[in-house]
Each structure stands twice: as C-alpha cells, then as structure tokens.
Amino acid sequence: MSFISIENVFFSYEELEEGKIVQNAVDGVTLAIEKGEFVAIIGHNGCGKSTLAKHCNAMLLPDSGRVLVDGDDTSVDDNTFKIREKVGLVLQNPDNQLVAGIVEEDVAFGPENLGVEPAEIRRRVDEALRAVDMYDYREHAPYKLSGGQKQRVAIAGVLAIQPACIVLDEPTAMLDPNGREEVISTLLRLNRERQITVVLITHFMDEAVLADRVVVMDGGKILTQGTPEEVFSQVELLKKHRLDVPQSAELAYRLRGCGLKINKIPLTQTDCVEMLGEAMR
Question: How many whole angstroms separate alpha carbon 247 and alpha carbon 259?
C-alpha cells in the first residue's frame, strides 16, 4: 500500500460566481505517493496543486473520493490527529507558521501540544534545528531572520513532530535565490539522509527537476507525470497548457527545431553543456 493514496478525489470551494458553485478545484485526481519518495507537483496558478496538498494531512477533506495516509482515511474524525503526526504541512509564508518570540520555543510548540515530555521536547528541538542548520540561531527572535532562515525554522517545527512526510506548499515562492537554495538543499538532505517523504508544490522548474517524480496539474486534473526526464521531454504538451520548462530544456527544444540533432533533452546547466558539446562534434 502506498503511503499516501489519493483516490478519485473531487473538491470544490464554497464560492459563488453568478449564483453557481465554482468548478472543481480538484477534479477526479488519483495519485499514489510512496514512502521515502520526493514528489514535485507543478502547474500554473489555480490548477489545484495547493488544494491537493492540503488534502494530504486532512486540512481539506474530499467532496467525493478518498485520501488514505498510511492506510487511514482522512475523512474519519478519529484519524485526524495521527494523520497530522505523520504528515506535516509547511505553508508558503513562514510568518503564518511562526508563533513564538524565540526560535527554539517556536520549534517546541508542536511537540508541546502533543503532550511530549519536556526532556524529549528538548531533544527533538535540538535535533530538528540541527537538521536544518539553524541550531546556532535557537535563541534568536524569528523576526530578525532572513526569509530562508524563517522557512527552515518552520520546517524544523514540523520535524519536531517527527512526521514521516512533509508537504510543502510553494515554500520558496517568497524567497530570494539564496533563500530558495537554503530551503531546497535542506529538503534534499532530509529526503536522502533521513528517508523523509517530501511532497513539494512549486512553480520553479529548477526545483522540480531535483525530484524523483514530477506531477503536472492543469484544470484540477493530472495532465502528466513521470521522472523529470520523462515529463520535461514533453515540451510541446507543457507549452500547449501554458506551462514552463527548465531553461536547458527550452534551449534544446529550440535548437532541435532549427535542425540540430539532439537525442536527450537536458534538465540542468551541466546537462546542457554536455548536450551542446555532443551536438557540435
């Protein structure tokens, strides 16, 4: 059984538009996420990716269909507490998740609310802050931190609950390039070294190429999915649906259109240099 199973899920917001309910934000989505996997979900604004993310820890519940987390149905009230222990959610703006005046107190907030013993809270807080390279800032005020540092503290707060999975809803959207690099390198390390399942909602293609699997959404549905190589090789399909591709893939696509023989679409700058070298031989 998959760690998160999303089965034929439909969901609409209770907004009215000329007296009619707005169309499904999530429209019949079926998706399986395996334990230890790093999955990136991409798509333009309004495609349903953030709505889908909030179904993974029972923040939202399906209108129809079901979501199972480690076999537990999110729509069953008695399951909500343990589901949120297993799946932590990090939002786009870290200021919306930081609740205390000191970094270590903020990270301790989650386990305190779970009734964890003080000595264990201390251990979890220190471990979580070290995991995101923020231990030296444990006595700092969050408002004095950079955007990337704040987001890493927000991730530490989720880690202190000891979830098996972290779902992040565009966590780098408000950050500068340095902050983005801090957050993404942290996620990669947690996934690779600690086998924490990561579901990353993003509109940055250079982040998506780092995932094990990329899921593309459009109009509340899954348009396509696969490895980064499989997804970003479908340049024409993605462009048809007003979606970007990595710059290296875009360059290769244009050069191929000019008649240059290119066997494999590159995803990174290094891949692109190698591609150009081979093509010019």
Answer: 19
Q: Would you tell me how many other CB atoms lie within 10 Å of the CB of residue 80? A: 16
The single-letter DSSP state of residue 44 is: S
Task: Quickly tell me which residue has 């340049």 as its tokens.
Answer: 235
Rg (CA), the chain: 20
**What residues contact residue 130 under an 8 Å CB cut-off, 6+ apart?**
none
pLDDT digits (tens, 9 = 90+) for 75-119: 999 999 999 999 999 988 888 888 888 999 999 998 998 889 999
Q: Where are the alpha helices (DSSP H) in the chain?
A: 49-55, 80-86, 103-113, 118-131, 147-159, 177-194, 205-208, 228-232, 235-240, 247-257, 269-279
Among left, alpha and beta (phi > 0; psi -120 to 50; other), residue 68 is: beta
Report pLDDT for 41. Answer: 96
Q: Which residues contact 127 (CB under 8 A, 6 or more apart)?
A: 159, 160
Pairwise CA distance, residues 124 & 162, whole Å: 8
Facing residues of 41 across strands? Answer: 201, 215
pLDDT of residue 276: 73
pTM of the model: 0.89
